Amino acid sequence: MDKKFDKFINNFRVLIKDLGLKNSTQREIILKALFHSKAHLSAEELSTLIKKEYDSSIGIATVYRVLSFLEDHKVVSSINIGNANSKAYEINPSDHHDHIVCTKCKKVLEFFNPDLEKLQVEIANKNGFKLIDHDMILYGICAGCKK
Amino acid sequence: MDKKFDKFINNFRVLIKDLGLKNSTQREIILKALFHSKAHLSAEELSTLIKKEYDSSIGIATVYRVLSFLEDHKVVSSINIGNANSKAYEINPSDHHDHIVCTKCKKVLEFFNPDLEKLQVEIANKNGFKLIDHDMILYGICAGCKK
DNA sequence: GTCCGTGCAAAACGTTTGCACGGAG
DNA sequence: CTCCGTGCAAACGTTTTGCACGGAC
Questions:
Q1: Do A110 and A50 sit in the same domain of this protein?
Q2: CA of B9, C1' of C24: distance in angstroms
Q3: Which residue is closest to B112 within chain A, CA to CA?
Q4: Checking DSSP bridges between strand A98-102 and strand A130-141, what pairing results, if any?
């Protein structure tokens, strides 16, 4: 039932070994918690969730350190939603996508649009840039909140 | 020589009056400093600039309060660049645009692409959203840094 | 036995707020 | 004269860091 996560965590263990570093229970718990949460969580939210559902002894400093480490190695990624003062993390999806946020209920949807990706490269080129990455968040009112 | 700013500040005074509020030297200095800076500045950077070049007695709380007030009234706007922990402000351009940032030299260019705007509305509609706004930042290596 | 990763607490940031005062209307 | 906007300092929420310890290799 957890085959997807097993595969994911195995890849992670290989990464750790390749880097010549050491793994830890904490890192795996943090990944597990994030992997099984559909939401985009801030470090604090993730820490609270972990304390409640997994292991209450994991300190928040570790959550920050691990998330930062994971982001450096592209295992997770973060977005800055609207005026929020903290980043929201998710497992880095193998398939790239962007986000659309409902300004009323704060729900976050993901989407991928190939035309958009193509257009971004064109725009970068036109400005003399070699495109590396992009952040893109759309804000609107979702179907449910429109009523 | 400062006709553009004069016009801008006059519009601002009308806005203040329309709101039934009071103007202040501080607000005008903050606007002046931001208006004449081409860069996208954080509240702290703007405060430092103002202390050095305009009036050392303007407190940082005022800068935050004024920027927040100005953003609420669409006089300025802010973006969250990459991993920075603070927002970067600019005078709200009458013409909407997005940003492309050089990850090496941190230079910020502005661009506008009508196809992109159209595409965003389409994407929102496809997901059942009524589009209100968007954040979009491209990251790449600029022409100068490519060499 | 080495170090790396951790937990804790303190520090460091960026930002907001309570308060009394001064200045614009 | 009335409030609004300000400066100051304290408070706040988020993130980072120094340190000694424990655990992975």
A1: no
A2: 17
A3: A123
A4: parallel
Residue nearest the C1' of C8 (CA based): A59
Between CA B118 and C1' D16 the distance (Å) reads 42
**B127–A139 C-beta distance less than 8 A:** no
Whether the Cβ atoms of residue A145 and residue A105 lie closer than 8 Å to each other:
yes
Instruction: Write the pLDDT tens digit of every residue in A77-133.
Output: 999 998 888 999 999 987 899 999 999 998 999 999 999 999 999 999 999 999 999
3-state SS class at B113: coil
Sign of the dihedral through C-alpha A85, A91, A97, A102 = negative
- Domain's final residue, options A93, A116, A136: A93
Q: Which residues contact B49 (CB under 8 A, 6 or more apart)?
A: B33, B37, B41
Cβ neighbours for A88, distance < 8 A, ≥ 6 positions apart: A40, A41, A42, A78, A79, A80, A81, A108
**SS3 assignment for A87-137:** CEEEECCCCCCEEEEECCCCCEEEECCHHHHHHHHHHHHHCCCEEEEEEEE
Residues B78 and B100 in one domain: no
Domain count, chain A: 2
Distances (CA, A) of A98 to A43, A73, A94, A110, B134: 20, 19, 13, 6, 11
CATH number of the structural domain spanning residue B120: 3.30.1490.190
Q: Using CA atoms, how far apart are residues B86 and B72, in angstroms rounded to an integer?
A: 17
**Contact call for residues A124 and B115 (beta carbons, < 8 A):** no
Tens place of pLDDT per residue across chain B (147 aa): 688 999 999 999 999 999 999 999 999 999 999 999 988 999 999 999 999 999 999 999 999 999 999 999 999 999 999 888 899 999 998 789 999 999 999 899 999 999 999 999 999 999 999 999 999 999 999 999 988
Under 8 Å between Cβ of A109 and A137: no
